[in-house]
Amino acid sequence: WPLMKSLMWHNTDAEPDRMERRQAECLVPGGLLWDDILAVGVFDDARYETATSTIGRRKPQHGILVRPRWYF
Fold it and tell me: What does pTM read for this prediction?
């Protein structure tokens, strides 16, 4: 859990798999209802367009957000 709470979670020599382990936050046992998703974060404008066309009418409550700093 300390890794999940960390703001900086890049790989280190001691822990070369930190980024992959941190991504486990996206796993939800038993599934998730679309209405429970508050927002979708994407890296850049190109991925925003992809997400918008993929998601279509089913937009999350707070939309699709371009947030490059959310990514490693």
Answer: 0.57
